[in-house]
Amino acid sequence: MNFSGRFTRVLKRMIVVGLMFLCALAFTGPVQAEEGLNTHEVKQGDTLYKIGMKYGVSVQQIQAMNDMYGTMIYPGQELILPVTLEEWEEDLLARLVEAEAKGESYAGKVAVATVVLNRVESPLFPDSLYGVIYQSRQFEPVDNGHINDPASHTSRQAVEEALSFQGFDGGSLFFYNPDKVSSAYHNDREVTVVIGNHVFSK
């Protein structure tokens, strides 16, 4: 085989390997989340308005997420951003809310969704919605299979409201029904709100 033929075969092999690598990147599952996905490092010329427009969130939410009372920011500052979800993630969260808060008020459904979003932001939990929901032994509907039941319109609305509510809640990371669960682990935590049968805490 001449040099030209060998070169062509090597080139084709390199292209195939490269395509396989790109496909592997493209089809990585949702379990892994990018580091720093919900933060923004302020650049020269940034304003809260520009940052809000870039990520599709309000200035008020950015301020609430970062305990800010004004609009002054500076280059190099790391801002925490509200969690934004893709369509499949909203559906997953709505199904969890439907199963966890069935029979609870609309406010209770919003609070359950908010707890999950707060966990995505918290260093104590996985940094993706999928990771938070499927973390071992955290949510009963995942264990009993009810996570796969379809969500109601009300649960979907509750998720939308929870997304807009980020930063304005009490930072709840846990919820439980004291009639069903009795644990010192929950009793030692600061209660943020009680809605219906659920006690929310952080």
TrEMBL record:
Oxidoreductase is among the record's keywords: no
Protein origin, superkingdom: Bacteria
GO molecular function, one term: hydrolase activity
Region forming the signal peptide: 1-33
Keyword Signal belongs to the record: yes
Residue ranges of domain LysM in the record: 38-81
UniProt keyword terms in alphabetical order: Hydrolase, Signal
Name by which UniProt lists this protein: Cell wall hydrolase
Organism: Halobacillus yeomjeoni
Lineage, opening ranks: Bacteria, Bacillati, Bacillota, Bacilli, Bacillales
